[in-house]
Input
Amino acid sequence: MKKTLVFLLCCVVYNISAQSEASNWYFGDNAGIRFNADGTITSLSNGQLSTEEGCTSISDNNGDLLFYTDGRFVYDRNNNIMPNGSNLYGDKSSTQSAIIIPNPGNLNIYYVFTVDTSIGQADPDYGFNYSIVDISLNGGLGDVVSKNLPLLSDSSEKISAVVKDCQTKSIWVITFASQDGLPKDPSSFNTFYAYEVTALGINTTPVKSTFNINISDGRGYLKFSPDGTKLVCANATSGLYLYDFDTSSGTVSNQKEITINFSPSASKPQSAYGVEFSQNNNVLYVSAYYNSNQQDFDDASAQYGSLLQYDLSAPNISSSEMVIDKRQMYRGGLQLGPDGKIYRAMSITYNNGSPFLSVINSPNVIGIGCNYVHNAIPLTRNSRQGLPPFIASFFSQKIDIIGNNSTSTNLQLCNGDTYILKGDEIPGAIYQWTLNGVALTETDFDLNVSLPGLYKVLIDPNNGDCDRFEGQAYVVFNPNPEAFNVTLLQCDEDGIVDGKTLFNLNEANANLTGGVAGLSTKFYTDPLRTIQVDANLFGNTTNPQTIYVEVFNVATDCFDTSELILDVSITDSNNTELIVCDDDGIEDGIYNFNLEDADNAVVNGLPSGLNISYFETYEDALLEQNNLGAFFKNNSNPYSQTIYARVENTNNCYGISEVLLTVNELPDIKTEDITYYCLNRYPETITINASILNDSSNNYTYVWSNGETTYSIEVNEPGTYKVNVTNANNCSKERTIMVDASNIASIQSINVVDASQNNIITVNTSGEGTYEYQLLDENNIVYRPYQDNHVFENITPGFYTVYVKDVKNDCGSVNSLISVIGFPKYFTPNNDGFNDTWQVYGVSSLFQPNSKIYIFDRYGKLLKELNLSGKGWDGSFNGKKLPTDDYWFSVALQDGRIFKSHFTLKR
Output
């Protein structure tokens, strides 16, 4: 077993509860947690410190809080600032602003080491200092008796501590600074300073270890391994380094740089911040982050963090890198807990925390088996970037007294169990056992436990040196379930009448467990429960047969035993058929059957009070698995499928019957149609029919809504006609035919807008039909083809015939003659056959016969009164040709309209 250095100190100074000094943590925005003696964790909300990063605390050997600090203010156990406990030279923005170290020779004296940092020119950096707390003063609440005693003028934001040895009882406190410990601009850190804390106080002459490096970024954690042999230094953007440490001399050596290979993208490289070793000292964890610009500190989308694992036994440590977690988040510290787990601080941005801590449950395990759980511990306040550091030796690995070869110290037992905890058997050694902190009388290396609680053992080899070993086990006794004896009935339906068949033993689970959730079963053929059987498919060998059962709790493995009696009955039930028409609205051969409709036929001739269950396959019915239920179920095979009905009561199985599910097709007809009847053709009739599709069979019956029973009927009036069509399987479907009225149009009026830039004809009709409209010119040639619109635009002046026809059922057409008035803008009387005369269009002896047309010269002299039936004016006056000029006209139409304008005579 590995020797644990923490007990070299703790046996002399703190008694058996070596890790109790780290029981209370305060950090972040007034957040805190307490590690309880029973292994649970309680969130604390009474903390007073509010810090972005640095913090630390200390408790007594019973786990009761003594005091805590952020490096600036020291708070007592009542959460009040101690006398003289303000303005220490730490900084809440310093990564590890403080650590608390006890005086090895005086349990009342504690040293608070602080490291400062500078945030801007108005914030001076006071370097590395220490203050002294006497916890016996102020009624046992403590008093800061000396404050800000200087050690270095400048240092990085790092501090760590480890036990030196048992003989001297000393503790090493280490920080990282420049070679002379003086401020540099820019910063240049390359030297470790190890200060020894003894019973006499602090040796202010440090052991210096200088390396050929130049670290400019002082941010990031400094941590010892629990055994004190290794030291890791995270320098944010200046790199990550691993060292050896000699606890006897305080020297640091063997520098190894660890390269972070992981990067979510080229623009977000990862920088080391939080670091921690596993309890077995062989695994290193690094909490890395993307060092975003100052202006992006509060932009969550600009942040990215990762949790990396390194195997320190690997030949190339950097190559062993394993990404345990990666996500959009800010940086956070890592810290071993008293339970051997590593806790991770959570923060969203620099100024925005998160109400959780994350946990690495098994840090000794390489790979994802380390069992990282994100946001595992809920807090009542927000975590930020930092967690409190402690003397690394507090967390040295314990011996395994459970013997389960696991890092877990939890031991789950069942009521009535006993268990033997065993420490290392060392001749002459002294064994001190405790239960929940109370000493037990047993002094042997092993302990028989029968009560719950936290057991610990401290082993003193009693060999003249100060080696000590500690182990612990948290014992929980879980209740045993209650198992019940059950009889399972089955039908002899395997084709051989011999009382032997197949059973699904799981059918009895609900009765075996009493229906309690979280319980499961195992089945055996022998009373000693050594021959386990397949519960899903078991063939009995005798009738009846006893099966031996373990009912166990899935979570705890605690169990009880009972017996399952298998009984086979030889009887028979009836086959039957359920027949339906595919009338559920979707003609696909699938129907929602009411299986209960088959019940009476299945049990016909059998006693009353039987239970019927339905199954899709014979095997399911035999093994009573995948019960279809007793009500409505769809068949899975279209149109025809056989399912199985299992009939039984509490004492006998009456057989398994076939139930044929048949879905008959409906007549293939067109269910809806529309046709038209011309009212102007009454009493002429039209024929409508039942419209049978894709079927040459004549085996149909018809019932029309008017009482007729033929395939087709004749009608001579509009209306809704329905016919119910039934096929040979007595399946019916209804066809509905809408007979709509149609008719020839009646022209109510024709409105003409003429003598304009856009001549318009509007035809107004009435009637039951749907109409189209057409224009023919005076030569009976189509001027405008048929259109749906009853309005014609941009019509040339002249005479037209309007045609209106019915388009529903071609009931006929009507027509009417119209004229459109228009006036030529010019004419050329040169006898070439084109525009030789001027006449008003759309006026004739048939249209507007009483109209008057007069032509004047520009001086108002009447030159001509036109004859409506003539060819028009030829451009002469009294037989003399008039010259090219503009001439005026006046038209008084019969309908009362008067038009006056001019036109041009061109020669």
User: Anything to note?
Assistant: The two ends are 133 Å apart (CA to CA).
